[in-house]
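Problem 12. The chain below contains 671 residues. Write out its predicted structure in C-alpha cell notation.
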Amino acid sequence: MTKADFFDRENECYYFDDPDAIADFCRENWPEDVSHILRIADEVIRNEFLFDLKWDMERTYEPVIFDKEIVWDYKPGNDPEFIYQFNRHRFFICLGQAYALTKDEKYAKKFFELLMHWIKNMPLCNQNKWSCWRTIEAGLRGEYWSKAFRYFKDSPHMTDEIVDAFYQSLTVHANYLIESHSPFRLMSNWGVLENHGLFNIAMTFPQSEQTKEYAKIALDHMATEARLQIMSDGVQWEQSPMYHNEVLHCYMDVLILAKRNHIPIPAVIYEKVHKMALVNIAWSKPDHHQFMNGDSDDTDVRDMITKAAYLFDDPVLKKHGFKVLDFETVWDLGIGAEYEYEEMEEEESENISFALMDSGNYYLRSNWSETGNLLHFQCGTLGAGHGHSDKLHIDLVINGEDVLMDAGRYNYVAGPERYEFKDPTAHNTLTVDDRLFTVCKDSWECSKLSQPVNQKHTFTDEYEFVQGGHLGYMDLENGVFVNRKIIYIKPDVYIIMDELYTGGSHKYEQYFHFNSQGEVTVNGKKVTYHGKTQETELYFLSDGVNLQKKQTRLSRNYNQAEQNETVVARLKKKGFASMFTVIYGKKKESMDEILVEKVPVKSNFKQNYHPDEWAEAVEISVHGKQYVAIICHQEVNTPTDQTEASSCLGFGNVIVFNKARETEVGEVLLY
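Solution.
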C-alpha cells in the first residue's frame, strides 16, 4: 500500500476539513486547550507520558518517563489500567494537533517513530491479548490511529513503508475485532468502542468490498448494542455518566463518518443517540458537570452536548452547549461546521426537572442558572461493573455549589479501596444492621444484588415528589423493606423520609457525604454545611437518632482522592421505623431563616392522634410562608375520614399545604 493509493479520496470523507483555519480558530477561542495539547505533545517527544485529558478514562498524576526504549507493556504499581490507557495512543492525536498548530516536523517524526516501534514490538499474540491487545484498546486505536494519521498527510516523514505498515496493522486490528465479537459485547460498552473503531478503520481505508463489509458488520453490531444498552429514557444501562458519554462519543463519530460517506444509519442508532445526548441536559449540574455517579469523574459535559447539537440540529441542545464549537469538536467536525453552528437557533428545554424512570434517575431542579439548586435521586438497576451500590442515593447542589456528593470511583484495583468508593457506605443512602444491600465480589462483579422498587413521582409548579425502595434487606431474618420519599418545596426546601418496614429489631445508618470544599458542623440534631457561597442546614426530626461526624474520602477524578466529612445518622428500633430529615439551602447573604417543627397527625373523623408508625408531619416556616407536609406510612383513613396536622386537613398519603393559601385539600403528591 503506497501513500498515493492510501489517500485516494477527498478529505470530506473523514474528519477535519481545513487544519490551518481550525488552528487559527482554536488559538483565538481555546488558548488553554492549545497550551494543554502542546504540553502533552512536547512531553511525548521526551518519552514522558501523563494522562490528564478531559475524557481520559483512567487519569494519571505522575508522568511515566522512559529514559531509553519505550516498554509498551510497562505497569507502574499494581494497576494495569496504565497499560490499557498507554496502549490506546490517544496522545497520537495530540501530536497531530500540535503538528497542525505549529507545522513543526518534530511532531510528525515522533508520531511515525512511535507508530512503527509499536507495530514492530507489539504483534498480536496470545501473550498480548490481555495487555496491549485487549479488544477495547484495539477498538480505541481504530479511532485514534485513524484520526491522527491524517494530520500528517503532507509531512515528508510519511513514507510508503510507513503507510503500508499502518495499513497492514489496522487490517489486523479490523479482523481481530470482528473475530472477537461475542454476546458479552452486545451489553458492554466494549462492544460499542470496538465496533466504533472498526467503522473508523473502514472509513479511513481506501474503499473496497472488504471495507464495505467492515462497515456493515460494525453498524449491524452497533444497532443491536443501541437496542440493548440504551434504555428508553436515553441512559446507557451501566449507570455511569462517564461511560455513557464514552459510548455517546463513539456513536457520534459514526454519525459523522456515515453522513460524510453517504452511508445509511439504522434508525435505532439515530433515535437512541439523540436521547443519550438529551440525558446530558437532564443530569448537568449548574456548573455544567456530570454527577460522579458510578465510575464517573467530575467532568464538564458541554462538549458532548455541543457536538450533538450540531449533529441533530437541535436548538435545545445548542442552548446547553458552548456558544462556539469546543476544541475537540471543531477538529472532528471541521471549520465549516463551526460557521453553521454559530447560525443555529437556541431554545429552552420544556422541562426543568426530569424523571428518567427506566434508569431510575430523577433530577429536581429550581432553574437553569449557574446558581440554581438541584437534587438527584437514584433508584434503578445496578448497572454492572461500572455501576455502584447507590440505590436511594441523593446528590444535592445548592446555589450552584455541591453539598451532598457521591464519593466517586478512585481506581479499579480490586480490594478495600475499590469497595470504599463503591459500597453503599460511600453514597448518600442507608444501610441496615451494618450489612451491604449490594455486595462486591471483585472490582467488577457482585455476589449479591438488590432489586429496585421504582415508584410514582409527581411534579407540580410548586412541589415535586419522588419515591423509591429496594429489596436488598429482605433476606435478613425479619427482613426490611427500605423506602425513601422525597418532597421538594421549591426552590430550596427538601424533605427526606426513609421508611423501614419490618417486624423485627434492627439498627439503621444514614450517610450524608459532604463536599470537601466546605466545613460541616453538628449542633444537637442540626447539621450545617458551610460552603463558599451558601449554607445548607439538615434537621433530623426522628426520636432516637444519634449523629456522628467522621472523615471519609471522595474522588473527583480517577487516581485522585481527597478528605471530606460525612455525617452518619444512627437509629435502632423494633418494628416499623422512620428517619425524618428536612434540608434547607440558602445563599450566605440571605437573611431568610427557617423554622422546622415536627407536628402530630390525627384523624379528622375520630379526632385521635396517629402514632408515628402510621403518619408523620412537619411544619416549615420560610420566606414568609408556612408549609405543612403530611406523610402517611400506612393506610390510616377510615371511610370518609381525612388526616389533619396543624389545622390542615386532606386526603392522601403525601400532602403539602401552603397555609397562607389553603388549610383544606392541599396539594396531593401521592394518594
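Discussion. The chain has a mean pLDDT of 95. Students who got a different answer should revisit the alignment rule from Section 12.3.
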